[in-house]
Amino acid sequence: MKTFSGIAASPGIAMGRLCIIDRQNVAVAERLVPLETVSHETERLCQAIEHTRIELEQLKTRLATANGEEHLFFIETHLMILADERLVTETTDIIRTGLINAEGALRRILHRYRETFAAMDDPYLRERICDVETVIERVLHSMSGEQSEALPQQEGQLIIAARDFSPADMLQIDRGHVLAIVTEIGGRTSHTAILARALDLPAVMGVDGITDALIDGSAVIVDGLSGTVIVDPDKETFQKLLRSKHRYEYNERELLKTAPLPAITLDGHEMHLRGNVEIPEEGASILRHGGSGVGLYRTEMLFMNRPNMPDEEEQLATYRAMQQAIAPFPLTIRTLDVGGDKLLEGMDNSETNPALGMRAIRLSLSMPDEFKTQLRAILRTTAGGPVRIMFPMISGMEEVRIAKALLEVVKRELSSTGTQFDDAVQVGIMIEIPAAVTLADLMAREVDYFSVGTNDLIQYILAIDRSNEQLSHMYQPLHPAVLRSLRRIVQAAHGAGIPACLCGEMAGDPLYLPVLLGLGFDELSMGAGSILRVKQMLRRCTMDRATRIAEGCFAFSTAAEVEQYLLSQYSLDSDERID
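^ thats the sequence. predicted structure below, dont judge the formating
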């Protein structure tokens, strides 16, 4: 028996026969070329890129015919990377200045991109290198004349193991036979992991060297809950994990039965439970898990890894796809939130402290034409159903008023051309800076709702870099300063007659549900996989009891004391109601 540890990328437990896809990267030999052949090498590069584009377009058509268009965003992303002019210009520069062959230059470009992405703090953005690698490997295959290895068409209960597994691969597998996937690279926020969760396919990623260590056809267990892969398990281990599998699947079936049930307490208090999403493909999972729409649609993916901003029509098409995926429920679109470690092409990355620099709404207001383009696309989306606009990282009244003024300009421009939109579209702000907490009572008069981004708010309140492993123990959602800030935000919102929402990771932890409910939050937004467990806790509560629990938290002076108090008040494993 061998046990491997990796990243729990998609939940579930699967048992089957190992199928290794030995899809090696193209062997690239960098060699010097004469000056007179530089143009020939450049032409080879351009031909390979065009061949890869045609290959992806054909794949897109084939997948649309077989599976519909629900998950084609991933192919569009790869086509977008391929269309990036930098891929040609930067590689050509290396060919010309280094006098090396096209394959060697392309490998150098990939290495440069890997270094750039590895330096990013945001795990979601770090994982985007997987998409870049997939595209460049396709181009290298084309240049070498090799064909990409097709997925095996085998019958049986298969566990696929591969160095990497692209979203396109995911869409081509026979889900009647493939039960789980294991990869050497990738993580929980990779596109492949997102799609695996959307398809309810267990996955463990980041298992270094697993394809070299295993034998094809071996018995294997993939535990997507713990991030463990067990090969040739002994009888005791097999029976133990089989019981875990049955328990997990039973619990999931029981939870899914509650998906249609209202998110309401025992004494009739309703709370909206919505989803956080990055791509339209996640919409179906939000609805399947009982979510009532999207409380946070991060639009950054549209803007990253490209030389030019997406135009209005491209944004509109993507927003409409997201809207259709969660219809008839509302869609909350956050305007561009980049900066810090999330850089657009051409942005200055030399800021001394980028976390406190030109980012989010500050960046959008510094480029009004591009900001108006996004606002036009969002407003046009409102013609198809309920949409809310949300401005990120607001620190003062001036930002709110300037952003709203630009929105009014765009409304007038659309009206003058007879373009349909919802003139009464709701406009809200993210509360994620201490200044916004202090001014919450004033800003509540200017907007239609608040949405608290606890990930950043906790970081800024406690002066903790949440990506710093040495300080991770100090990142405390139950810190009294955080709880007092949350109480102040809710009081300011309700004092002005607007709802208070929360969309940070704190929303998806059932431990915090009674506290957030008791504080008075009207809406929580979280990852799809958390919705049913939070709803389960909500449906066991009474509003009166939750209010008393929340008030009790303020009697303590440390996060540890608050957590101990909460655990003494209720158990997440208990079937008893919290009343």
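The CA atoms of residues 347 and 539 lie 47 Å apart.
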